[in-house]
Design a protein that fits this description.
Structural class: alpha+beta
Helix content: 10-25%
Number of domains: 2
Shape: globular
Order of helices and strands: EEEEHHHEEEEEHE
CATH topology of the largest domain: endopeptidase fold (from Nostoc punctiforme)
Length: 184
């Protein structure tokens, strides 16, 4: 029998300023620990339920996201909007595409999974070098920038259906990842 647990809300702070969730999984008598910048050790799996119905801190993030809806100033700044929703001043990544690649490289991506938990970052390939990221708030909806702008450069923040990015921009859904940032 394998026992698994997640220390939700526990943060690991390294000497270089990395702040991220800590995942702990127990497999038999061994305990496996990994930060978002390293994969779980061989023989360990991510705990089931880690990304269940909502991520730790999602309630606060969703409340912040809904307060931002109707605002402006996020033209082509989707990564910044997502970071702001999670209480960060900036994403720490050059683009949403770079952030997605980092999530893949660290084993934190959930490619093609269309059942993200509340609070998850959801990513799309837009056909350009930057990609797009938004925050899933539940009920099949996301908070995203630019998607409803009537004037280019408006940078509006919108509450829209999950599939709107695909239908409006013909983007390809990549998957979701937890909100892991390299900046405090």
């Amino acid at each position: 029998m394998i026992t698994k647990l997640t220390l939700a809300g526990v943060l690991l702070t390294s000497g270089i300023g990395l702040v991220a969730p800590l995942t702990v999984a127990a497999s038999g008598s061994d305990t496996c620990v990994a930060t978002p910048v390293e994969a779980l050790p061989a023989g360990c799996r991510a705990p089931s339920g880690t990304y269940g119905g909502s991520l730790p801190g999602a309630d606060e993030a969703v409340a912040r996201a809904l307060r931002l809806v109707g605002g402006h100033g996020y033209y082509q700044l989707c990564a910044r909007l997502a970071a702001n929703i999670w209480g960060r001043p900036r994403a720490g990544y050059y683009s949403a595409a770079e952030q997605w690649q980092q999530m893949i490289a660290t084993g934190n991506a959930h490619p093609a999974d269309r059942q993200p938990p509340v609070g998850a970052l959801v990513f799309w390939d837009t056909g350009g070098p930057y990609g797009h990221v938004a925050v899933y708030i539940g009920g099949g909806r996301i908070v995203s920038n630019d998607i409803g702008d009537q004037v280019s450069g408006e940078g509006g923040v919108y509450l829209v259906e999950f599939g709107r990015v695909e239908s409006r921009w013909h983007a390809s859904y990549l998957g979701w990842a937890p909100p892991i940032y390299s900046t405090p």
